[in-house]
Amino acid sequence: MRETHAAHRPLSPHLQIYRPLINMVMSILHRMTGAALYVGTLLLAWWLISVSAGPHYFDYVNGFLASWPGRLVLFFYTWAFLHHMLGGIRHFIWDTGAGFEIRTVNLLCWLTIVGSLGLTLLFWTIGYMVMGKL
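Given the sequence above, the corresponding structure tokens read:
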């Protein structure tokens, strides 16, 4: 029986070897938030279409989005949007050729996480204040 050369090559190290770095986590989150934006945009389109479908259907859709599960979805949609946007700004900075030092990469990644969470909470707090619920 003939042995193949590939059988003797070492396996490439994977997650069992590498500990996750913040930029690895941010790469995965950036892709996940991009996919979540597709679903959230379908919800936005559903809401806009319900406006033209008549008051009864609009009340139905608006009622769903105003319920606690709907608001939870909208909250995470807001976070996904802001996180993806700040991640895009981070990538734009890297596209200029700046910010490739490890310390700067880590700082930009943490700023993206903290910034997206902070801005989401700020937007929702302002929204509730405007509606008079805070």
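The domain at 22-130 is CATH 1.20.1300.10 (3 helical TM bundles of succinate and fumarate reductases). Try to locate this feature in the token string yourself.
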